[in-house]
Write a structure and sequence with these properties.
The chain is an alpha+beta fold. It folds into three domains: 126 residues; 114 residues, Immunoglobulin-like; 124 residues, no CATH class. Helices cover 22% and strands 34% of the residues. The protein contains eight helices and 26 strands. Strand 3 and strand 4 form a beta hairpin. The longest helix has 32 residues. The chain is flat and about 100 Å long. It starts with 6 loop residues before the first helix and ends in a 21-residue tail after the last helix.
Length: 459
């Protein structure tokens, strides 16, 4: 309950608070009215469906069709939606810096032959902005609205620059228009090599047509599709090329075709240009420079499509892990959200599930560089790993047989009824081993029990 002597102060406080709120509302309303009064056009971006830029005899026309902005003059193609919408937003919020009164001499202000005229149309609204010379000191540009050439305005130089976009800026820079997840087929031909034809099955997996037994890296096919879909045009070189040979496109260096919903997009790749490759959408697209070294990246990716991983299983199926040198192995058993790990000396510790799963993830990344020669492939293991499921069934077995001058590691692996001996790169293999070594130490953080003597293991 508020004491009676404080009531007058409370009433005064509430009155002042109400007065402050009223003044703030009134001030913000006045500012909003001033902004509206300074707006050159009373239009919203969504009310504009047509845009024209005129620079002397040059005219660029854009129209919105079925929700998509298209360039309809001087050529017909998709427009850069983000760029067009930025221009529409500027037009809708364009303000005059100040007015000029009197009967102006249009020639003095560069408005008799204006360097830029912007026109917009819509179902209910239309407008025209004529822009002339810069003001002294380049602090603005002279302009007038619609046909009112007797009423001059000055607009911000930044707004003028944002509206004065060349045709190249307005063109859609997308090379491929497909959605990666909806692609059904990918065909690639590089130089004189055999064409690669990949098709997506009903279950979402990819197969190499004609090489059905080829173990295909599904993730790398998807990565290649995403890479191609994000490629952009760096430069438009020629809309109507007459000599394709000068770009290496008469006999293309490479060709990529992606099929989505029975629609095929074909890209021809030519010789290298500054900062990218010459390219052309078939059959009659413009010659462009792609912003990435598409040809080299595609060729490199094709060489890595074979699934050469030592272990291709799922981490979720693993319930028991045994690893270490012969006679000094560690054993980890999954228990709910942690792993109980037993050291060679029978000491026990617990690790969060995520720590051992990092080790399994790094194991999944190990790839066979090449099969090993028969000589030396029967050596005794110096390190081993075994993965088992909940019923104790072996899922994967690895044995390290030796090192090859520090660059490669000789291993023998067994998954199911298949046994393979080969060489893996030393660096990723050693990184994986380090991760397994870290599991032998208690997890850091508060609440960690002090380590007992003999608990610290080594491999």
């Amino acid at each position: 309950m508020i004491p009676r002597r404080l009531l007058p102060y409370l009433v005064l406080f509430l009155a002042l608070l109400g007065l402050y709120a009223g003044l703030s509302w009134h001030q913000s309303r006045q500012e909003a009215e001033k902004r509206e009064a300074k707006k050159i056009f009373q239009v919203k971006p969504g009310e504009i469906s047509g845009l024209v830029l005129k620079r002397g005899k040059e005219e660029v026309r854009l129209d919105k069709k079925d929700g998509v902005w298209m360039i309809t003059k001087p050529l017909k193609m998709r427009a850069d939606t983000a760029m067009v919408e930025t221009m529409l937003s500027i037009l809708a919020h364009l303000q005059k810096e100040r007015d000029l009164v009197g009967a102006p001499d249009l020639k003095t202000f560069g408005l008799d032959k204006p360097p830029l005229v912007v026109e917009f149309t819509g179902p209910k609204k239309s407008g025209r902005l004529v822009i002339g010379n810069a003001t002294p000191g380049n602090m603005g540009y002279y302009a007038y609205r619609d046909q009112d050439s007797r009423h001059l305005l000055i607009i911000n130089p930044g707004n003028k620059s944002s509206l004065d976009r060349p045709l190249g800026d307005l063109r859609d820079k997308t090379i491929f228009a497909y959605a990666p997840g909806k692609a059904k087929s990918l065909n690639v031909k590089i130089g004189g090599a055999k064409p690669v034809h990949l098709e997506k099955e009903a279950d979402g997996s990819w197969r190499w047509v004609g090489r059905e037994k080829f173990p295909l890296r599904q993730d790398r096919v998807e990565e290649l599709l995403r890479f191609l879909q994000t490629a952009k045009v760096k430069e438009f070189v020629s809309d109507h090329p007459k000599k394709l040979a000068s770009y290496g496109l008469a006999s293309p260096q490479g060709e990529v075709a992606v099929v989505q919903d029975k629609k095929t997009e074909r890209l021809l790749l030519g010789t290298q240009a500054k900062g990218g490759d010459y390219a052309r959408k078939a059959p009659d697209g413009p010659v462009v420079v792609a912003d990435k070294d598409l040809l080299a990246h595609i060729a490199k990716t094709l060489l890595t499509l074979e699934d050469r991983r030592l272990w291709r299983g799922e981490a979720a199926a693993v319930q028991k892990v045994v690893w270490g040198p012969p006679g000094k192995t560690w054993v980890a058993v999954k228990e709910k959200d942690f792993w109980k790990i037993t050291a060679p000396g029978k000491q026990e510790l617990k690790q969060p599930a995520v720590r051992l799963e990092v080790g399994l993830w790094k194991l999944q990344a190990l790839e066979l560089e090449r099969p090993a020669a028969s000589k030396g492939s029967q050596g005794k293991p110096v390190y081993g790993l075994e993965l088992l499921d909940g019923a104790g069934k072996p899922l994967f077995h690895l044995e390290e047989l030796g090192r090859q001058k520090g660059k490669e590691v000789l291993v023998r692996v067994k998954a199911g009824d298949k046994t393979l001996t080969g060489l893996v790169a030393a660096n990723p293999y050693q990184e994986w081993q380090k991760e397994m070594t870290r599991l032998a130490s208690p997890p850091p953080g508060p609440g960690t029990a002090p380590e007992k003597k003999g608990e610290k293991g080594s491999q």
